[in-house]
């Protein structure tokens, strides 16, 4: 039975994970894959939801049972592994946060006509304000919930306006004409890859929701997070499907904006600005909070000044975007590394789930182990393949 007093934290952790996943890349991926696969993309979403839940439940449960953050668990499994994982998470978090800040700037540009750089500074300043208040984590929870509900409402409106072929979508979700494995892996990596896997689990730990008695609440929050992200993706898929099924052509330079504009006119375009801003700013917050949570146990000063470390993370990401822009090669490498972070971190959690030094006499569900192992194997293979394919671009 869930404790009523914890509902706010549980929902906050779920929305933090979900809104961290729903960033500029999430919006673009979903739109582009819908254009490529049509109604059969529903099958990709279904597969990714199942794999996402398997990954999240494994990670969140082990964090709760061990009452430790992921980096500390990893160091118990293999000394030094926690430092290596933290380095990957923080570097990936920085790289993707540059894109998130840029997405927030684009959202401001659409809404108010200001330059993306000026918009990025304003949006980053709003994110920083959250961590200047006394109850920063509670404010972060509420902000993530508000932005999440707002995105869902706007996605539903645009999906209804675009009038997608629902029967075809339902049939091809179960009986697809085409199965795109790469699309499945891209969605899994984008929803639970890198720092995103740990955003909610670390938030629950910070709120004191841990130990064996908390597992029902942890399960509920993890599944809720995936459900929220999936609802947003499904309605964006339906909105895009409604547009492309009518033969309309999306603008290659900004596919998700094109969906909103073609479905709902100029008002739809402004709605895209709101969604992009909401998605990007919540991802900025989630990335900064989770990345810092991976280093704060290494030194007491970082934990003591956690909020200032988060603010510094946001400031540096914003400064890089404003002065340099989005460094393409850095983002290419970060994307490839993101595919490798999940199998390393999830694999570590699965080993930890059977390590008595970490979990005591806790018995991890075998079904979760099977699900998690499947995700590790598939993501490791495709992540390695992607990294090999993209490394030459770094030296051009």
Written overview of the protein:
- The protein is mainly alpha-helical and 396 residues long.
- It has one domain (4-65, 99-324).
- Helix content is 80%, strand content 0%.
- It is built from 17 helices and no strands.
- The protein has helices at residues 7-21, 24-37, 41-66, 70-77, 81-112, 116-130, 136-162, 166-174, 181-192, 196-206, 215-244, 255-293, 300-304, 306-324, 328-352, 356-359, 366-390.
- Helix 3 crosses helix 15, helix 4 packs antiparallel against helix 5 and helix 7 packs parallel to helix 11 (215-244).
- The radius of gyration is 20 Å and the shape is globular.
- The mean pLDDT is 89.
Structural class: mainly alpha
Gross morphology is globular
Tell me roughly what share of residues is in helical segments. over 70%
List unreliable stretches of 5+ residues. none
Please tell me the overall pLDDT.
Answer: 89
Q: C-alpha Rg, in Å? A: 20 Å
Please provide the ordered H/E string of secondary-structure elements.
HHHHHHHHHHHHHHHHH
- Please report which band the strand proportion falls in: under 5%, 5-15%, 15-25%, 25-35%, 35-45% or over 45%: under 5%
Count of helical stretches: 17
Q: Tell me the count of domains.
A: 1
| Number of beta strands | 0
Question: Cα distance, first to last residue?
Answer: 57 Å
Largest sheet: none
